[in-house]
């Protein structure tokens, strides 16, 4: 068996279905960033632990929960509220534990949008580090999201998970990506000033993850990025095969890219003192010596006994 973390913030529309999909495990922990809606109330109806901690960034939140929250099992899976873990994926995770030839496993998402799986224009299979041995994988910040740091070999699972990326409505999606674009613009400036393109990984990367990340670093340096992204997604990736939903998805992603570009230009014109700082690198903790932050509140509701 393995433990499941569920990350939440104002997820009252998704949390019940997410928890229900995770009930295959007898150790589910909801890590909530002080939601102001009914997320905690709904989660408390289920046999889960609820831990609240102030959100700083995606990388810091994940690293904090891995360090501060004890789990019943050595292996853990990370879910977000608009995602589900399927029975097939759960069983594959159990099988992976029995053959521990890796400390962590990447899992591909299936983006669900306008009631349809957007298979082509989402770079499917697009992998994320979701299942791993606790104490062997940590996270750092990158743009609006995070990247993993692994102390050992990694591998890939065959089963996928559905991601209902617009389940709370288009207005929430736009509001969220407006916030994300600020972090992405800050990261873009940092990459342009200090980063580089890994050309080897771009063409000969050992995995989809390495090739995709090298492609992103290259895309930051290309002119007409929003237009190029739309053409790449709609024609080269085959978004045209995803129908009306594919057209809408590609257009939204191009709009998101344009918003990042506009904010990059805005930041370049700002005095340094007015620029929003990039998320500092999350420090990878030494679990033997580090002290756990006390900036959190824990509530235990219908908890299964350890």
Indicate the topology.
Blueprint (H helix, E strand, L loop, with lengths): L2 E6 L6 H8 L5 E5 L6 H5 L4 E6 L4 H11 L6 E6 L6 H12 L5 E10 L2 E2 L8 E8 L3 E6 L2 E6 L3 E11 L5 H25 L4 H6 L3 H12 L5 H12 L6 H27 L26 E6 L5
Parallel strand pairs: 1-2, 1-4, 2-3, 5-10
Antiparallel strand pairs: 3-11, 4-7, 5-6, 5-7, 8-9
Overview of the molecule:
39% of the residues lie in helices and 24% in strands. The protein is α/β, with parallel strands linked by helices and 306 residues long. Strands 1, 2, 3, 4, 5, 6, 7, 10 and 11 form a 9-stranded mixed beta sheet that branches. It has a two-stranded antiparallel ribbon with strand order 8-9. The radius of gyration is 19 Å and the shape is globular.
Gap between N and C termini, in Å? 13 Å
Structural class: alpha/beta
Q: Major beta sheet, specifics?
A: 9 strands, mixed
Helix content: 25-40%
Cα-based radius of gyration, to the nearest Å: 19 Å
Mean pLDDT: 89
Query: What pattern of helices and strands is seen along the backbone?
Result: EHEHEHEHEEEEEEHHHHHE
Residue runs with pLDDT of under 50 for 5 or more positions:
285-306
Beta-strand content estimate: 15-25%
Number of strands: 11
Given the structure, what is the number of helices?
9
Overall geometry comes to: globular
